[in-house]
Amino acid sequence: MARILIIDDDPHIRELVRHFLSRAGFEVGEAADGPAALRLLESTRVDCAILDVMMPKMDGWELCRILKEHYEFPVLMLTAKGETAQKVKGLNIGADDYMAKPFDTEELLARVRALLRRWRVEESRKVRVGSLTLDRQSRDLLADGERMSIPLKEFDLLLQLASRPGTTLTREQIIENVWGMDFDGTERTVDVHVNRLRERFPDGRYGFRIMTVRGLGYRLEAVS
User: What is the DSSP letter of 143?
Assistant: First the structure.
């Protein structure tokens, strides 16, 4: 069951949204301001946040930026301001959707469901290992949250190893999956690319290492 966090300093708004989301089968958590939300997130899993913009202590813009920097769930922003500039600002800092108050509760529910569906699809495309995130479709690579550019074949090789951590992949398997059946090079090509990955991602620095399995191939292992 998905858990939704409502962050709004207006208790009536929180009660209204909680009522409709609970009736729809969601678990619901509440916070009256940004610091309270961040404290709750230290011990509570959240699948989506509904976030008001105008709040005391920390406004919604700053909280959204923090959430997007440190957590991985969609954020829907609520505000009494319906101007295009406000919407653009929210989307530019990472908000996944935006609704102006007063809002229709059925539309809010529909948007939350759509966000969760879209997020699950996007998450299924991603492979995480240590502090790296690899996107199968876009071929994007994030290292400690920062985008990193590496050659496509190195990305595909790293993706193959990261998709099956702890499993030894033979050089033949790697060649077939990364270079294709028609590849006319040698297994030495795999060794060269693995060495390049090791140079980019030294043992343990990003939470994993690439191990050589003598006479077989390579295995990626997570390290603490």
Answer: E
pLDDT for 71-129, tens place per residue? 889 999 988 766 666 666 666 778 888 888 888 999 999 999 999 998 887 777 888 88
Q: Which two structure tokens, joined as six digits, stand for 1?
A: 């069951």
> Is residue 54's pLDDT more than 90?
no
User: What phi, psi does 50 have (nearest 5°)?
Assistant: -110, 120
| Long-range pairs, 56-61, Cβ under 8 A, ≥24 | 56/9, 57/33, 58/33, 58/34, 59/34, 60/7, 60/34, 60/90, 61/89, 61/90, 61/93
Q: Which segments of the chain are extended strands (E)?
A: 3-7, 27-31, 48-52, 75-79, 97-100, 126-129, 132-135, 141-143, 146-148, 169-170, 208-213, 217-222
Distances (CA, A) of 70 to 73, 100, 108: 10, 25, 25
CA neighbor of 45 nearest in space, from 71, 77, 14: 71
| CA dist 30 → 109, 126, 165 (Å) | 16, 29, 37
Q: Tell me, what amino acid is at 204?
A: G
pLDDT in tens, 166-189: 999 999 999 988 998 777 778 889
pTM for the model stands at 0.62
Question: Do 9 and 33 touch, CB atoms closer than 8 A?
Answer: yes
Q: How far apart are CA 224 and CA 18, in angstroms?
A: 39
